[in-house]
Amino acid sequence: MNTCLLANDEYWMNIALSFAKENIGLTGVNPSVGAVIIKDNQLLSYGITQPGGVPHAEIVAINKLTQDELKDATLYVTLEPCTHYGKSPPCINKILASNFERIVISTLDPNPLINGRSTELLNNNDIKFTVGVLENKAIEINQGFLKRIKTGAPFVTVKVAVSLDGKIATYKNHSHWLSNEYSLKFAHLLRFRSDAIMVGKNTYLIDKPKLSCRLPGINDKKLLKVTLDRNLKELYPSDDNLIVYTLAKSNQKNIISLNEENFLEDVLNDLGARGINNLLVEGGGKLITSLLKCNLIDKLILVTVPIIIGNDGIPMIENLQIDKINNSFRLKNIETFNLKGDNIQTFIIENKE
Amino acid sequence: MNTCLLANDEYWMNIALSFAKENIGLTGVNPSVGAVIIKDNQLLSYGITQPGGVPHAEIVAINKLTQDELKDATLYVTLEPCTHYGKSPPCINKILASNFERIVISTLDPNPLINGRSTELLNNNDIKFTVGVLENKAIEINQGFLKRIKTGAPFVTVKVAVSLDGKIATYKNHSHWLSNEYSLKFAHLLRFRSDAIMVGKNTYLIDKPKLSCRLPGINDKKLLKVTLDRNLKELYPSDDNLIVYTLAKSNQKNIISLNEENFLEDVLNDLGARGINNLLVEGGGKLITSLLKCNLIDKLILVTVPIIIGNDGIPMIENLQIDKINNSFRLKNIETFNLKGDNIQTFIIENKE
Question: Which A-chain residues 96-125 have CB contacts (< 8 A) with chain B?
């Protein structure tokens, strides 16, 4: 039975969402979900989707309690419980067997195998439920998973450190270190929250970035490395952790040949098919410009560093042949904070076609 | 007698400073000063330097009170009272005749005709005084006056509206309107607080800016217009409100010929000699670049607009031949606020030589 929002629903869902946030970037193809179990307005148990994607949050939370404790409790879960056999049996079975009084779901799972099936089953079993509590927060936490399920492509976040005059390096391609040590740590946190990291060929060859997540205490973060090299005149190592997309033919296992038409779209779809939810793009200017022109950027994070390099520096965005201000790309700033002088601004592109 | 800070000194000085702020940009060659008179911890009177520069703040405040009221009161004044005959007799005479118990001064006047003379006279007359209360605020309010008195040149504020990628116009020189209506109003407020406004020749000829202060209720703001045209191949109107600096020879009254060596420094010194305290520079990129290279920018106000124009747009800063990040111009952000999407950031240049 679908019931309306109760007094503390947002309070408890917020806590479930905080748990969900913790494992973003660690749950592989699965979403990072949080669950809390409440009785008499007291927190009895909590769960988070575990690294690798299983067990799911609801199971972790339920398994901590006895049947007596579970009886007449309320389950808050940030994403609709699964109703199909994946890596594990459907969570909804365990939920139905737990004698909950009520289930509160933040957002439904757009996966066609699930979407709304769970609430149908709850209804059929006369269990009260509410859907949509703090839904925007749940959508943001799983922006990658939800986009991949809906479109087949990962959520694309572009992060780039620029000078006040929009340059990413000097004319001599020197860029170490544009941003300060705090922004560098923030950049590694973004890597930690991502499933794959992509850079253009020039950045890969000139900067030779390690493309790894280097944060104290983090040693085993799995991060697929991706680069694009249309002509494949360079040699790339045969490495399960590196994928090179190209227009050329190659027999090498980690080099993927694609057609010129819709090249970038096909790159993203291939990454989606590999289960990549969140793709982080770290430059260079040529790749960012191509993604921008193809309207493939979901989020742009600018790390603006308070320096001036001059117009002979390497630009963050290449020529766009925009004639009038009205025809420029218009962005919307959705978050800003300052890290000891470096200004971190997150944008979405407003006039994506 | 020099006394230490008393309990409410900062409180009352802050109020005097607020009054001082009101007339910035209206007092001509004179500083904008605020004064309050306090007795028994109550505000008896206040004064601000009047438009045009006279009467001075102290006189305005004193003239509102009787000798009885003034007796044993405390005068708070944001700048040292004058001790010489200018447009008006020395304020210190009126102060000495007013039987104040104590005088509190925020900052001394660096004018060699005054500097410390007033406190000497207070001392000789056995009147208690304190100097240096909230001095940084007083210095900021009269940054233009103080710089001109010390160096002969006005305080140079550069204001420029740029895209996220550091462009001030499209490749077709189209820039209307880059910033939003709120930032445009802010730009006019900056003009209101300035004594002169300078743009490069190209901006003057291509944009044909009115270079006037257009704010509701403001009709008579005096603002000297300045442009630079080294070769003087263009015709300029003979206009008392416009000055054109050039390397060429000219008999026209408002066209000033200077030498090539130290051209920009001489422009500023000439403006200083004309009593200009605050100069606002509004572009274009060529002029801003020249000022930056000559280390002549005191404050840079960036109005960053959330659009992307592309690298073929007109840059805010031209080529600088900077090879390494360490050799770039390093700035310090001293204030940031957001006007409905446009980000207003104020910087000082840190590594001025």
Answer: none
- Among candidate residues A10, A22, A58, A318, the one labeled active-site is A58
Domain annotation for chain B: domains and CATH numbers: 3-145 (3.40.140.10), 153-349 (3.40.430.10)
Whether residue A325 and residue B309 make contact (CB cut-off 8 A), yes or no, is yes
pTM attached to this predicted model: 0.91
Residue A182 CA to residue A343 CA, distance in Å, equals 11
Q: What count of residues does chain B have?
A: 353
* The predicted structure's pLDDT at residue A239: 87
Share of chain B above pLDDT 90, in %: 86
Q: Within chain B, where are the H helices?
A: 9-22, 57-62, 67-70, 91-96, 117-124, 135-141, 143-151, 181-192, 201-202, 263-273, 285-293
pLDDT digit string, tens, across residues A65-111: 999 999 999 999 999 999 988 778 899 999 999 999 999 999 999 99
8 Å CB contact between B137 and B162: no
Report the Cα A102 to chain-centroid distance in Å: 30
From the candidates B10, B22, B58, B282, which is the catalytic residue? B58
Question: How far is the alpha carbon of B336 from chain A, nearest alpha carbon, in Å?
Answer: 10
Q: pLDDT by residue (tens digit) across A18-67?
A: 999 999 999 999 999 999 999 999 999 999 999 999 999 999 999 999 99
Contact (CB<8Å) A329/B315? no
| Residue B58 annotated among the catalytic residues of the structure | yes
A223's enclosing H/E stretch is none
Could A166 and B171 be called an inter-chain contact, meaning their C-beta atoms sit closer than 8 Å?
A: no
Contact B211, B200 (CB under 8 A): no
Secondary structure of residue B46 in the 3-state scheme: strand
What is the C-alpha to C-alpha distance for residues B300 and B320, in angstroms, rounded to an integer? 17
Helix (H) or strand (E) holding B133: none
Q: What is the DSSP letter of B215?
A: B
CB < 8 Å from B in window 165-194 of A: 165-167, 169-172, 174-178
Residue-level pLDDT at A76: 98
Name the nearest CA neighbour of A281 among A200, A351, A172, A217: A200
Residues A107/A138, Cβ–Cβ less than 8 Å = yes
Give yes or no for A310 touching B (CB within 8 A).
yes
Between CA B297 and CA B309 the distance in angstroms is 26
Query: Hey, what amino acid is at A312?
Result: D
Q: Which residues of B touch A328 (CB under 8 A)?
A: 163, 170, 307-310
Rounded to 5 degrees, φ, ψ at A16 are -60, -40
CA distance A86 to A84: 6
Report the C-alpha gap between B224 and B191 in whole angstroms: 10
pLDDT tier at B352 (50, 70, 90 boundaries)?
A: low
Q: Closest to B331 (Cβ–Cβ): which among A171, A307, A338?
A: A307
Alpha helix stretches (DSSP H) within chain A: 9-22, 57-63, 67-70, 91-96, 117-124, 135-141, 143-151, 181-192, 201-202, 263-273, 285-293
Spatial separation of the C-alpha atoms in residues A150 and A110, rounded to whole Å:
7
Q: Give the pLDDT confidence score for residue A181 in this predicted structure.
A: 95
* CA end-to-end distance (rounded Å), chain B: 41
Across chain B, mean pLDDT equals 94
